[in-house]
Design a protein that fits this description.
6-stranded antiparallel β-sheet; 4-stranded mixed β-sheet; about 25% strand
């Protein structure tokens, strides 16, 4: 039976069969011994997105001691949910993310992970619910996740890709109006500064 460890772009955690292409956690353990989740689905502000394999490390069983493992369709999904690249297993990507953050915010030096986590935690949550914000879809960068009719779409070029746990459905035209945005504002700023997230192969080749 699938465990409740698959994250959607709204930050929700589900038990589904599809596994995803990236791994992560939310700063520790928030599951019970029977591997159900506590009502608050995070342990700290450190929400990270990791690779599936790193230095031969293995955790057996999943959702045992230590922390609650999570899985994402791709990095676009993880960013929308409010995660950032891990500085241990994805150091090069995390360094690029921090450098783009500094450029976007006019900082003299790239911020440390805890400083970004404080900002992202405020931007991704409204109490315990997902925080969204309004913006014109035409001006949003590729890799942004938006909500239309209650469903999540990833923006790429002139297209909006319908999201699912199995992958993206065939593209629809990008909306040219104000929409609800799932990806946190600071992450949007990082995308504007050239950070290129990892896409699931169902999104098609990068142009």
């Amino acid at each position: 039976m699938p465990l409740p460890n698959r994250v959607d772009p709204f930050g929700g955690i589900h038990a589904v069969a599809q596994r995803g292409t990236l791994f992560g956690n939310r700063g520790g353990r928030f599951h019970r011994d029977d591997r159900t989740l506590h009502s608050r689905p995070w342990a700290s502000r450190q929400w990270i997105c990791c690779v599936l394999a790193f230095k031969g490390r293995r955790r057996t069983p999943l959702m045992g001691r230590g922390y609650t493992e999570l899985f994402f369709l791709d990095e676009v999904t993880a960013l929308a949910a409010g995660h950032r690249p891990c500085f241990e297993c994805r150091r090069a990507d995390a360094t690029r993310f921090a450098a783009a953050w500094a450029r976007a915010k006019g900082l003299a030096h790239p911020p440390k992970a805890p400083a970004m986590d404080i900002v992202l935690h405020a931007e991704r949550l409204d109490g315990r619910e997902k925080r969204t914000w309004r913006a014109e879809a035409a001006g949003l960068p590729d890799g942004t996740m938006i909500v239309v009719g209650g469903e999540a779409f990833a923006l790429r070029g002139e297209a909006a890709l319908p999201w699912s746990f199995a992958g993206y459905f065939p593209a629809l035209p990008r909306p040219w109006r104000e929409v609800d945005v799932l990806t946190p504002p600071s992450t949007i700023a990082v995308l504007r500064e050239g950070f290129a997230p990892v896409w699931h192969n169902s999104a098609g080749p990068v142009a």
